[in-house]
Write a structure and sequence with these properties.
Blueprint (H helix, E strand, L loop, with lengths): L3 H13 L5 E5 L2 E7 L3 H10 L7 E9 L13 E2 L2 E2 L28 E9 L4 E8 L7 E3 L8 H12 L2 E3 L28 E6 L4 E6 L23 H10 L1
Parallel strand pairs: 2-7, 8-9
Antiparallel strand pairs: 1-2, 3-6, 4-5, 6-7, 10-11
């Protein structure tokens, strides 16, 4: 007999049919992907239908897939000088400078997504729901605040950090960044050092904003091994190791 998660995945496929783009079971988690046009219909059914009863939204987050699959940190070994990762040529999100354009690896309409984590207390089940915005340049996803009220601040956070617009949200405004903040800091094309820096100016007797003066760089973890045990491949180190023994 299939386990409860397999049963849930099968029930979702049967109930949602073509309104769901995909239903999958991977890494012990059931995931449903739907289009933005079908989001409200599917979300309502997931909440109300007796066999689902996902009445609690426990989390909602934004995702930027523009650099999905690119990893400048991958390495298989390390030397005394440090890891070889983080030194690839080209512009990446880690070494983005002002004015640079970050090459997107996503296709149109597959860059920004909202991910919802639901729980059914009646059936002791959890579900992951993912929705992609149809337009990368102007990402819009319907608000689910009318279905789960807990989505209110979550959607504001996704708007603030990723620039995803949630249509029909009752009060869509920034929630974490400062007043007048420019850009969305969790987007992959946002420089790690930001755009501006702030300081207190004693002459003006107020806080002033200026262009950031920090040089962007990739933080490369280094491993410095001075112990003779790690230098056995070099003749002098072998002599020192034998003498120590």
């Amino acid at each position: 007999m299939s386990n409860p998660k397999q049963q849930l995945a099968e029930a979702l496929r049967a109930a949602l049919g073509e309104t769901a783009d995909s239903v999958s079971l991977a890494f012990g988690e059931v995931s449903v992907e739907v289009s933005a046009d079908n989001l409200l219909d599917v979300a309502t059914r997931l909440r109300d239908e007796e066999k689902f009863q996902f009445q609690q939204l426990v989390d909602l987050c934004g995702v930027d897939y523009s650099q999905f699959g690119r990893d400048e940190w991958q390495t298989d070994d390390a030397s005394r000088g440090g890891f070889s990762r983080g030194v690839a040529d080209g512009v990446s999100s880690g070494r983005l400078q002002f004015g640079d354009e970050l090459e997107s690896l996503s296709s149109q309409g597959r860059r920004f997504a909202a991910v919802y984590h639901l729980i059914s207390y009646a059936h002791n089940q959890r579900l992951r729901l993912r929705v992609f915005a149809a337009n990368d340049d102007f990402p819009v996803i319907p608000s689910v605040t009318g279905i789960w009220k807990s989505a209110d601040w979550y959607e504001r956070e996704a708007f603030d950090l990723f620039g995803i617009l949630f249509s029909d949200h009752p009060d869509l405004r920034r929630i974490l960044t400062d007043y007048g903040f420019v850009g969305h800091p969790f987007r992959k094309d946002f420089p790690l050092v930001g755009h501006v820096e702030m300081r207190y100016d004693p002459e003006r007797e107020r806080v002033v904003y200026e262009p950031v003066s920090i040089e962007p760089r990739v933080l490369v973890p280094r491993v410095i091994r001075g112990d003779n045990r790690y230098l056995a491949d070099e003749p002098e180190a072998q002599d020192e190791a034998e003498s120590d023994a």
